[in-house]
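Take a look at the protein record below and tell me what you see:
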Amino acid sequence: MPLKSFKPVTAPNRYKMLPGFDEITKSKPEKSLLEVKKRSGGRNNQGRITMRHIGGGHKKKYRLIDFKRTKRDEVAVVVGIEYDPNRTCRIALLEYEDGTKAYILAPSGLTDGHKVVAGENVDPKVGNAMPLKNVPLGTAIHNIELRPGSGGKVARAAGQQAVLASREKGYAFIKMPSGELRKFHEECYATIGTVGNRDHMNEVSGKAGRSRWQGKRPTVRGMCMNPVDHPNGGGEGKSKSGGGRQHLKSPWGHTKGQKTRRKHKNSTFIIEDRRKSKRSK
């Protein structure tokens, strides 16, 4: 999907790069697949801010996505490709032979009129979903289940893909988008193809106001704060040390680059190669 640039008639337009929406073929969402989405403002049930920089933004309705591909061995036709304000990729509206409609993540190359199906003995074509035990080695996949029947959780953002590297003893070894090599049970379902809207990472808002429309509030640097508010706060002038502290830290005291993963986490045994490890290179 190509990005479009603008004439620099104003300062924000000079660097603005926004999506062209060329692949979108349906402008209005399916009403039966919408849900009200309440905004929290980054606050928990006690009213305390637990997620910073969230608030405001345009009203949205949530699109119900079929991550589990519940209708197996039933052919569906792509009715349209839509914009989803809740995620970075596009979504595709499917219609099954019995008239049932469902949304899925739209992979690259999926257009109106394409037929897709989910099942054990389907062809490895773009948009089809199948268990990892039947996916050909070296195939690009997305929307992968962590546990059989739990619904897709892995590789769902715009432009993401994982690659099936090998299979052994009931497990499939998958090269993750981060470079990590991880084991998945071979009964887990995955969708063939790469998630669409690859150019999302190259978008440039051009102005702060567009971030506010998306519900993002301003971010203040820790160095600009007082010592009581941030570990890097304080100091005389533009102090890199932050009042005597030599390392850049997060608001919770973690040094930049510090490992925060628990030593005995349950999922450690399914990770063959960590990202950025020497073996994965």
About this structure: The chain has a mean pLDDT of 92. The longest helix spans residues 208-213.
